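Moderator note: this is an archived Q&A kept for reference. The question asked for a predicted structure of one protein chain; the sequence and the answer are reproduced below.
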Amino acid sequence: MPMTETFTPLDLVALMYRELPTETSNRLRRELAENVLLREQYEELDAARRMLPRATFAPADNTVSRLIRYSAHNAMTV
């Protein structure tokens, strides 16, 4: 009798964010196709992920100004 692999919610999240090795991802996708309870758990986690706000990052204006000044001061002449 083949041993079945146990996947955790952390594995499901890693699958959503494409953080699993290809072989593990393929095994988990096969298990999702066969295991209704696991697939329901994946769908619940995915629905929660989609509800999260999209993160956007922008540096403060003074940070940009300091970087430009630093760059201008340290620019190498050719």
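Archived answer notes: The mean pLDDT is 89.
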